[in-house]
Design a protein that fits this description.
- By secondary structure, the protein is an alpha/beta fold.
- Helix content is about 45%, strand content about 15%.
- The strands form 6 sheets. Strands 3-2-1-12-13 form a 5-stranded parallel beta sheet, sandwiched between helices. Strands 4-8-9 form a 3-stranded antiparallel beta sheet.
- The protein is elongated.
- Bound molecules: zinc ion.
- Zinc ion binds next to loops.
Amino acid sequence: MSHILSSVAWPYANGPRHIGHVAGFGVPSDVFSRHMRMAGHDVLMVSGTDEHGTPILVQAEQDKISPQALADRYNRVIVEDLQNLGLAYDLFTRTTTRNHYAVVQEMFRTVYKNGYMVEKTTMGAISPSTGRTLPDRFIEGTCPICGYDNARGDQCDNCGNQLDPIDLINPRSRINGETPRFVQSNHFFLDLPSLVEVLARWLETRTDWRPNVLKFSFNLLEDVRPRAMTRDIDWGIPVPLPGWEDNPNKRLYVWFDAVIGYLSASIEWARRRALATGQVADADLWRQWWNSPEARSYYFMGKDNITFHSQIWPAELLAYKGEGSRGGTPGIYGDLNLPTEVVSSEFLNIGGRQFSSSRGRVILVRDMLSRHQPDALRYFIAVAGPESQDAEFTWEEFVRRTNSELVAGWGNLVNRTANLIHQNLGALPPPPTSPTEADVALLRTTELAFGEVGRAIRAHRQKAAAQGAMRTVGEVNKYLADMAPWRLAKGDEADRARMAEVLHVAAQAVSDCNTLLAPFLPHSARLVDRALGFDRRFGDEPVIEEVTDLDDPSRQYPIITGDYGRDQPRGAPHWGRELIPPGQGVPAPVPVFRKLDQSVIAEENERLASESLD
Ligand SMILES: [Zn+2]
């Protein structure tokens, strides 16, 4: 048993999330976490909404509401969508909690005290007409890198490069069009050059990462410069230093604070647990995942986020611990663990291009789940998603996989087996007294699959894992077709005795396949269990709870959380064969998956076209 931290990328709260987002960070992290729980590990899965930064401010201005109101709105939408998809977070929170502020400020103070935050003078913009600071987002101009005409002061949305306002060609104020005046402005920079050696030494120990992620991460080290960790912006976490704290136009940059969310969410989870159990010491439980050398941590994200997880976050942790060339000592959080593995997905595309919310070329999680089963989407992402290369979403392929693999392959096997038992026996039959070669071979196949599928999930090869599980389903279907128990049912007494044996073997194999598929298809796993007469063998599913901010009683927000077997005497369901109990009543089955009519393809494609601005 190990402590496994499952760190899931933080969705940005400036709008609803689309299925490309959850293909990158959501489903892969959940499949992994569910499997690890079943394999007996103590998993802590954390994330939340990322609510600072310029895009939130820009969107809030457009909608004529405050940035906090905007973040509140989309935090709730995202919480509901991720819970409906069945993502089993121990805690899904947000970056505007007081707890997060306090953790981020402690990280900053210690990194600063250790000497890794260097103050530098840069050129900041002010409005010549008012004399006031012009925050980065109010400055537009031509991108010096790609020539895009509407680049913002902090970033070019066309080429994605980080910018400083003074880099812009023909800068202008978005408020009144005037040309800003540049004056000296002080900022803190994370001194990456003093951390590059220790970062490289750490990366050299990460031999089992996906090769593309490792290569990308090493490349990042070839040209490191100090990176600004504060900005001229009025939305974010105050810089906790005298002379800075009260300046409303200086804030920690969203890049510094968002990655600290993994730590602050773990701390919030432990603090909430201490409240629930009444055990004060439980507030320190997070340390089992962060300070213990045996703990392992896995970070899940899309490829556009690798930089933050293989460079910025490890650099912040090393600076906090004082392990760079400037030395230093850790603050109150102690010797924090670096990521064991950074697991990044490629992009899910549509029509050969990336999803784009602004172009309306998008399928929102919410819309998808209002019309389709969550497990159908989870399955598509697992078997056809962007695991190691960009993948394409099409409704044709979604309907085909749902109908041929989930409905006709797996659902039909469950239905046929349960129905034969229900009609002919009414309850699960006992195992054969002298099993045939075919019986033994099938049960060996399904038992061996636990090793194969489990290894693939732990190696983050979920496509291979899902395919392995479905191949096993195919073997059970073949066994049933060969044994034809429906024919035996019409025969003499010996035939009927053999039928019962065959149905025992089939039911045991179905139960095995259900456990194999449960990390991918958690909602249907319960239905399959019920079809075999089980009552609640799988742990709780994620729930939404309305909570009060731990340090600000005036503030409420929704979290995703759940039990997942941690407190159940039987624990979570076990990754491996559980023997089915003979005599257990088997009810008349109901279909597990909904077959999709072919007309769905045209309807969905039409809906997509009508919303697109392309
Ligand atoms: Zn550009």
